[in-house]
Automatic annotation (TrEMBL):
It is a multi-pass membrane protein. InterPro entries: DUF2179, N-reg_PII/ATP_PRibTrfase_C, UPF0750_membrane, YitT. The keyword Cell division does not apply. The chain crosses the membrane at residues 9-28, 48-68, 105-125, 145-165. Residues 219-273 form the DUF2179 domain. Its main location: membrane. Keywords: Cell membrane, Membrane, Transmembrane, Transmembrane helix. The keyword Membrane applies. It comes from Sporotomaculum syntrophicum. The lineage of its organism: Bacteria, Bacillati, Bacillota, Clostridia, Eubacteriales. This is DUF2179 domain-containing protein. Pfam families: DUF2179, YitT_membrane. It is found in: Cell membrane.
Length: 283
C-alpha cells in the first residue's frame, strides 16, 4: 500500500473520529437529530435504547446492497471503511466522552462545527461515510432531481420525524441550525478559507497600473479585453490576485495612478500557481 493511500486513510480516520465526537458530545445527548442515518439512529436510540453507532451501520447495510446493485461495486464499497469506522467510534466514544452542555443551541452549534469539520476532512481525502449521501446517489438513478435537492429532502424528513417523536419542534429547529453549520464548515474545509482577493481594475491608465503591480507589489497581472456596452469603447481590464495583506497596497497603487478607476474585489476560495498554493496538493 502506497504512502499516499496510507495518508488518505489516516486523515479519513481523523475526520471520522471528529464526527463521532460531535455526535457523542453534543448532538445525540441533546436529542438533536441533524439529518442522515445518524439522525435516524438518534431517534431510534431514544425510542428503543439501541446503540447509535451500530444502528447507523445497520441502516447502511441495505444502502450498500442497493448501491452495489445500482452503481457498481466500486461506488458501493468505497464508503464501507468510513461507515464502519464511524459506527465503531460513535459507540466507543459514547462510553467515556463528556457532555459539555445541555443547552440545545450550544449543542447544535458546536455539534455542527465538529460534524462539519470531520465530514469535511473525510470528503477532502475522498472518503465517504455512506448514509444519506449514498441514499441520494441511489435515488438519483431513478429521478432527474439533483443530489443536493435529494439530500435536503431526506434530511428534512429526518428532522420532521424527530420533531414528531420527541414532541418538540424546537429540537427540529435546532437540528436545522446544526445542519446549516455543518454544511458551511464542510464547504470551508474542502474549499479553504478565503485568504486571497481577485481585483478587476478598469481604468484609462492600465499600463501604468500594471507596471506598478508587477514591480512595486511584485504580483502578476493579466490584461483582459473589455468593451463598455454604454459607450462602445474598448479597453483593457486588469486582473490581479493578491493576498489579504496586500489589498490596501493595491488599492493605493490604483488610486494614486487613477482616482477614477473602477475596481471590483472578489473573494477567492483557492488559488493555484506561482506565488500561491502549488499543484502538488492532490489528496
Amino acid at each position: 500500500m502506497s504512502w499516499k493511500i496510507l495518508t488518505r486513510f489516516f486523515w479519513v480516520t481523523v475526520g471520522v473520529a471528529i464526527t463521532a465526537l460531535g455526535l457523542d458530545m453534543f448532538l445525540v445527548p441533546n436529542k438533536i437529530a441533524a439529518g442522515g442515518t445518524s439522525g435516524v439512529a438518534t431517534i431510534l436510540h431514544y425510542l428503543l435504547h439501541t446503540p447509535v453507532g451500530m444502528t447507523m451501520l445497520a441502516l447502511d447495510v441495505p444502502l450498500y446492497a442497493m448501491g452495489i446493485y445500482r452503481l457498481g461495486w466500486a461506488f458501493g464499497l468505497r464508503s464501507l471503511y468510513g461507515s464502519v469506522a464511524l459506527a465503531v467510534l460513535v459507540d466507543v466514544f459514547s462510553l467515556f466522552v463528556p457532555v459539555p452542555t445541555q443547552d440545545p443551541l450550544l449543542a447544535s452549534l458546536f455539534g455542527g462545527v465538529l460534524v462539519g469539520l470531520g465530514l469535511g476532512l473525510v470528503f477532502l481525502f475522498r472518503g465517504t461515510t455512506g448514509g444519506t449521501d449514498l441514499a441520494a446517489a441511489i435515488l438519483r438513478t431513478y429521478t432527474d432531481i439533483n443530489i443536493g435537492q435529494l439530500l435536503f429532502l431526506l434530511d428534512g424528513v429526518v428532522v420532521v420525524a424527530a420533531g414528531v417523536v420527541f414532541q418538540s419542534w424546537e429540537l427540529s429547529l435546532y437540528a436545522l441550525i446544526s445542519i446549516f453549520v455543518a454544511t458551511r464548515v464542510i464547504d470551508t474545509v474542502q474549499e479553504g478559507i478565503s485568504y486571497t482577493k481577485a481585483f478587476f481594475i478598469i481604468s484609462d491608465h492600465t499600463e501604468i497600473i500594471a507596471d506598478k503591480i508587477l514591480h512595486d507589489l511584485d504580483r502578476g497581472a493579466t490584461a483582459l479585453k473589455g468593451r463598455g456596452l454604454y459607450t462602445g469603447n474598448e479597453r483593457e481590464v486588469i486582473l490581479s490576485v493578491v493576498n489579504r495583506s496586500e489589498v490596501s497596497r493595491l488599492k493605493d497603487i490604483v488610486y494614486q495612478v487613477d482616482p477614477r478607476a473602477f475596481i471590483i474585489v472578489a473573494d477567492m476560495r483557492e488559488v493555484l500557481g506561482e506565488g500561491f498554493k502549488g499543484y502538488g496538493h492532490e489528496k
